Structures are given as structure tokens and as C-alpha cells.
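In the current project phase, we have settled on a layout for protein records. One protein thus recorded is set out beneath this paragraph:
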Amino acid sequence: MPIVGQLIALWPGLALIALGVGTARWGRQTMQAAGTNINPALPAKAIVTAGPFRFSRNPLYLALTLIYVGLTLAFNTWWGIVVLVPLGITMHRGVVLREERYLEKKFGESYREYRSTVRRYL
């Protein structure tokens, strides 16, 4: 089920992949510089507010979404778009909201202040 002609979808797809990879690297480097764990299964050591975290509380998840949508366009298939909706709902409810509860419990007022000034996604 192609979305559009292959060459039309390929270049925007590659651009989104590049943007996603760049955002992920920037976010990773920022987290390393702040001295906190990148792996979400490990405990957070600090609230990161620099780099891409100035614009989004979840830039690494946004980066993965950009890569996913870029791959969907590069492979030119509607199936990626169809799967994106349940995947996004699952990530939001099962990962992001759970992480937010954890961070609020761990960091209290400092996390609530950060949350009030920076958007969850964009």
C-alpha cells in the first residue's frame, strides 16, 4: 500500500530519519553531560533541562517517532502510519505518563516547575 510515488516519499523520509538521529544524539549527549542515566529502566539522577529538553520533556521519544515516520515514508507504506496510532497511544500511556509519575515522586517541586514550563512533546 504505497503512500505516494517512491521518489516523492523517499527524500522527506530520509530527512526525517536524519532529523531524528540528530535529535537523539543531541538528547543523549545532553543526558550524559548532566550525569543521568539514558536507559529509562535505570533510575534518574537529575532532571535534564538543557539541550533539546528546553523544548520538549521527551525529545528522545520524539526522535524515535521521527525516525519511525521517516522509515515509513522511505519504505513508502501506509502500514507504518496505521501502526503509528496504537504505538503512540501505548508509548504515551505505558511509558511517558508512568515516567512522569516517577519523576514527580522522585524530584517533587523541581520536576513540577520544569513540567509547567516545558511541553510534554512539542
Summary: The chain has a mean pLDDT of 95. The chain has one domain: 6-117. Residues 21 and 65 are 10 Å apart (CA to CA).
